[in-house]
Amino acid sequence: MANIKPFQAIRYNQEKIEDINHVISQPYDRVRYGLQDEYYALSDYNVTRIIKGKEFDTDSENDNVYTRAKGFLSQWLKDGILLREDKPAYYVYHQTFPLPSGRKITRKAFICAFELAGFEEGIVLPHEKTHAGPKIDRLNLTRATETYFGNIFMLYPDSENRIDAIFDQAINRPADIEAEELHEKDVLHQVWVVTDPVIIDQVNSEMAPKNNLIIADGHHRYETALNYQEEMKGKFPDAPPAAGFNHRMVAMVSMSNPGLTILPTHRLIFDYQKMSNEEILEKTGAYFNVEKLSNRADLEEKMTQAADKLGKIGFACQEGFYLLTLNNPDIMESLAPDRVLAWRDLDVSVLHKLLLSHIMEIDEKKIDNLENIKYLREPDMGYEEVKETGTSYLFILNATRIEQVTACTEVGEKMPQKSTDFYPKIVTGFAMLPVSPDEKL
């Protein structure tokens, strides 16, 4: 049973800030490659200062990235930069963006407080593996601030998009927030605050019987919330189910929403010296048809044509550009006998299990620990590095399809890390959920 609740969010006071565009940001895990400095420069009140603050050599137990985050939150509330919502609300969140064809589409979501459920309950299903480091970082931030700032991006089944239709009736007015975030400037973000109890009751009734919700983005944050909940229950065993720490802020998106878009995540292997280019290609030829292409454009065109086909992977090295086509999918059964067919049929599984682990002999633990591998949404940097460095290799993938995601999660299979990149990202800064021990929802 999926229990959701409206909540009194902490929100930016648009009368006190110069520009809402200057205080929002990408999720914390995408604040990298100089983006942190850009967000800091935009405003003294940019949410990045809380969710991904700068670290300094002089940091100590009493003055560090987490204590500063707590200080920013407290001061901004005191100064009226941030305000608490008067009434519990759902936050309808639309993102309108162009497809590569130029056609614009809108992905509809709503932000709510979701009652945490363990994966064993079958209400929420993960689809990717997680790592300890990010969870420790997020837990420390939650302990310090007792607030959730970023959303879990969660998919829910709704074949007729009934919930979107309910909210559409409630937002026949200008949005309360309109923004364009720095990093994805072609995306229009619109947020409506919905406090109508009739609408809220209708949405709650629709959501209540649902299960098999899928975490699209935010696995580390969801598992962190479960860990924080367990920690707080130990400290406050008499706390009621309505306690704030029993909930997590979530952006809900229908699996049937026509705006649901998944992008591929490419892999760059660097500082690899176990084999030469020639040796890699020779070993690859035992399992793949290896087609050499004249340039990047030809490779990407071939990949586009193969978007719905199994076992098509692009490969770039200093020797040139290649399209790899898996000859016999049965090899995946011998390499991963404990995995179901839905997992073995993923291009990302073929890449990790066959190409990286079996052919290139890269230790799977090193991949899990992010050693000598970079995950790229845009492959430009990868192509440049491959061109300049004889020990770097770029693998180009097509996007994982939503039906592949559901096929894996329904049988309890976790996909390899970075198997999906749902676009656009759920921006941080439109709403914040307090979860201190005295908060009740």
Structural features, described:
The structure is a single chain. The chain is an alpha+beta fold and about 450 residues long. It has two domains: about 5-260 and about 425-435, no CATH class; about 265-400, no CATH class. It has helices at about 35-40, 50, 65-80, 130-145, 160-170, 195-205, 220-235, 275-285, 295-305, 330-335, 340-345, 345-360, 365-370, 380-390, 400-410, and strands spanning about 5, 10, 80-85, 90-100, 105-115, 125, 145-150, 150-155, 175-180, 190-195, 215, 245-255, 260-265, 265-270, 290-295, 310-315, 320-325, 375, 395, 420-425, 435. Strands 1, 4, 5, 6, 8, 9, 10, 11 and 12 form a nine-stranded mixed β-sheet that branches. The protein has a six-stranded antiparallel β-sheet with strand order 15-17-16-19-14-18, with helices on both faces. A two-stranded antiparallel sheet has the order 2-3. Strand 4 and strand 5 form a beta hairpin. Helix 3 packs parallel to helix 4 (about 130-145) and helix 4 (about 130-145) packs across helix 7. The longest helix is centred in the middle third of the chain and has 17 residues, at about 220-235. The chain is globular. The protein starts with a strand and ends in a 7-residue tail after the last strand. The mean pLDDT is about 95.
